[in-house]
Amino acid sequence: MGKAGRFACIFTPMAMTIASLICLVVVLSGQAYQKSELSRGLYFFKADTTAFKADPDTILDKLPEGASPDVVKAFQGAASGGNMRDIYQVGLWNYCEADLKDGKEENWHCTDRQNYFWFNPFAVWKLENTSVQAAFPEDFQNGIDTYHKVSRWMFISYMIALVLTIAEVLLGISAIFSRWGSLITTIVSTAQTLFIIAAAATSTALYGTLISVFRTVLDPYQIEASWSSKMLSVLWIGVAFSIGSGFFWLISVCCCSGKSGHKKVVVEKTPYTYERVASPYMGASANAHNSHQMHPIGHGGSGQAYEPYRGQHV
Questions:
Q1: Model's pTM, two decimal places?
Q2: How far, in Å, CA of 214 to CA of 19, rounded?
Q3: Where are the domains of the chain?
Q4: How far is CA 30 from the centre of its chain?
Q5: What is the dihedral of CA 299, 300, 304, 306, to 10 degrees?
Q6: Which residue windows are transmembrane per the record (predicted)?
Q7: Is the pLDDT of residue 227 over 60?
Q8: CB 134 within 8 A of CB 122
C-alpha cells in the first residue's frame, strides 16, 4: 500500500475529527452571537416567565399549599421594576434575554461573554444579597450553589476538548506519512474523547439537575424551565464522531503502513564473494578441458596396476 492508500486510510478518522470539531464549535457558539438565529436557538437552559408576567397581581390567589407569598412578592417587584424579562437562555459563555409578543421573540439582549460563566437568577432578578433571597427554599439555594461550583469544571473541560480537537486535526496530517504520526494522533484523540465525554456528561447532568430544581421550586409560581434538544443532539453527535475517530486512528496505527508491496529490493554485492561466470579466455576449449578424462598411471600395456613402493630391481 502506497501513499495513496495511506491517505485513503487516514481520510475516515480525519473526516470524523473535523466533524467533531464542527459540532463542538456549534455548541460553543450557543447564545454567543445576538444577531444569529442559529446561535440563539442553541442553549443549555431556558427559563420562561411569560405565564407569571401575564398575571402577576392575582397569582397569590392561585398559589398551592406550601408556596411562599414572599417569593411571589419578590417576583412581582422584579417584574414591575423591569428586572424580569420573558425569556432567559443560557449558553457556555453568557446568557441572552428577550420579550415575547404575539408569540414572537423580540428585543434580544445578550450579556458579554466571559470565562467560567454561570447563570445566577438572584443577580439577574436583582434579588441577590437581599432579605427576599432568604425566602427561597433551601433546595433552590443548594441547587444554585452546586451548579455554580460544577460549571467551572464544565467550562475547563470544553476548553481542553476544543484545544485537543484542533491538535488532533493538525497531527492527523502527519499521520498520512507514517504510522508513528498515527500513534501520536491516537494518543491525543484518546485524551480529546475523554474530555469531550466529560464535558457533555457534565452539561447534561448539571443542567438536568438545574431544570429539576427550577421545576420543583418555581413551578408553583408559573416559571417554566427547559433545555434545547437541538443543543444536546449536536453535542452528543460530536461525542459520537470523537469516539469513532479515535477507533479509526487506532486502526491506522496497526494497518496501512504506506509502503509499497512492489518495492524493488537491491542487494549490494560484497567483495570476496564467489560468482561463477564464463571465462572469456578459454572459449570453446573450456568444454574440451572439462571433458578431459584422467587415466590411471601405469606401465604401458602391461595390464598390471602401478605399485609405487614395490621394488623394481631385486
A1: 0.76
A2: 34
A3: 3-254
A4: 18
A5: 30
A6: 155-181, 193-214, 234-255
A7: yes
A8: no
